[in-house]
Amino acid sequence: MERKHWMDNLRWVTVLLVLFYHVFYFYNNKGVFGGIGGFVDDPMKQPQDVVMYILYPWFMMLLFLVAGISSRYVLDRQTSKQFIKSRTLKLLVPATIGLFVFHWMTGYFNTAVARGQGAFDNVPSFVMYFLWVPSGIGHLWFIQDLWLFSLLIVLIKKLDKNDRFWNWCGKATIPVIILLGMLVWLGSQAMIMNPRPESLDGLYNLYKPLTYFIPFLLGYFVFSHDKVQDRVEKIHLPMLLCAIVACVALVWMGWGQNNTTPQFLSGWLNSLYAWLMILAMLGCFKAWFNQTNRFATYMTKSSFGIYVVHYLVIASFGYMMKMYTSLQPWMMYVILTLAVMLLSPAIYEIIRRIPFVRWCVLGIKKRKS
User: Fold this and answer.
1) What's the CA gap between 351 and 364, in Å, rounded?
2) 360 CB-near residues (< 8 Å, 6+ apart)
3) Separation of alpha carbons 332 and 321, rounded Å
4) pLDDT digits (tens, 9 = 90+) for 223-276
5) Based on C-alpha coordinates, what's the Rg of the chain?
6) 194, CA 20 to 30 Å: which among 101, 106, 164, 200?
7) Mean pLDDT, to the nearest integer, of 205-210?
8) What is d(CA 20, CA 338) in angstroms, rounded to the nearest whole number?
9) 108, burial (CB in 10 Å: exposed 0-12, middle 13-18, buried 19+)
């Protein structure tokens, strides 16, 4: 099978958008959980937070959809046993063992504000380590979800062992492809609208299993077909235009709100924008970016590792600049953006060269001589 460079490029560009998003998320004042807070109290008066409204509705769904396509291609070459083994190494090991080796440091900064307020004054340091470990999960929810979805798709593949349903999905016409956005909206309705603070409702809403499993399945069954990809390419410009209009409407109507609440995310306009943008990104990258170069090849190989390690840069630099410097906000955004874009690859390159640590943090086995 010929390498689809546009899909590789789409994946690593979306990962870079996640890094960019986290810069603004860390300093948001819209009440989004996590981060360290904004620079003004009034949520209507921090315009840079518009980045969250533009990116959050669709970029993780797009990563899951592309992962579904890739899973189909891999399962065409590997047995189910090989697939599960490779996905467990690449996804589950970094998302569990990696917490104890690397991501506890992120947890250290995630709990820094509470520690500064005296919340853990009487807690011994060795106990704090076991609090930092789960607090460092953060962005790793994505690869934890993806590991679970990988197990489920193996079971589903056994039910469709003759590929009848997969072949049927390949017949999707342009109107059907557009209407599949209804499934995205239905998935958003599976969130708990009024999560109870004394339960695990908030954790469920973080992982959003059904919300993200639907794009993963759509990727596997529908968008893994070359003919469907060609149809999406034909409508890339209308979809891009419609997505821009929907984005403007979403920002206009939702500005100042917490854009990660279940009520906001389950709204029809949020789902409409998300689906239009997903189709636009798929079509535009297939039409314009189906080539590669040395940088793109490097990012294709490294984007997963960069994603895994990047949030430590955000949490550490973002926290220290806000708490210990008098820099202007715009300077903090610039410095943090440059730091996460430059230091994340550097950290990845260091870790992947350290025996055992690379297995724990990145799911990379010992190199063959």
Assistant:
1) 10
2) 93, 94, 97, 98, 100, 101, 102
3) 7
4) 999 999 999 999 999 999 999 999 999 999 999 999 999 999 999 999 999 999
5) 21
6) 106
7) 94
8) 10
9) buried
Enter the tokens of residue 200. 């695990």
pLDDT tens for 22-66 read 999 999 999 998 889 999 999 999 999 999 999 999 999 999 999
243 with 57: CB under 8 angstroms? no
Q: How far apart are the first and last CA of the chain?
A: 28
Measured distance CA(139)–CA(146) in Å, rounded: 12
pLDDT higher than 90, residue 364: yes
The H or E element spanning position 196 is none
Measured in residues, the chain has a length of: 369
Spatial CA neighbour of 60 closest among 184, 239, 150, 167: 184
- Residue whose pair of structure tokens reads 């063959």 in the numeric block: 368
In eight-state DSSP terms, residue 366 is P
Locate 47 and state its tokens.
């315009």
Q: Which two tokens stand for residue 14?
A: 């979306």
Tokens of 44: 């209507």
Using alpha carbons only, give the angle 361, 366, 368 rounded to the nearest 5 degrees. Answer: 150
Q: Which of 298, 45, 90 is nearest to 82 (CA)?
A: 90
What predicted TM-score, i.e. pTM, was given to this entire model? 0.96
**Helices 5-26 and 329-351, interaxial angle, to 10°?**
130
Which residues make Cβ contacts (< 8 Å) with residue 213, sequence separation at least 6?
Answer: 64, 145, 149, 152, 187
Distance CA 4, CA 229 (A): 11
Tokens 């040395």 sit on residue? 294
> Contact at 8 Å (CB) between 329 and 40?
no
Tokens 């690449």 — which residue? 90
Question: Are residues 216 and 62 in contact, defined by beta-carbon separation less than 8 angstroms?
Answer: no
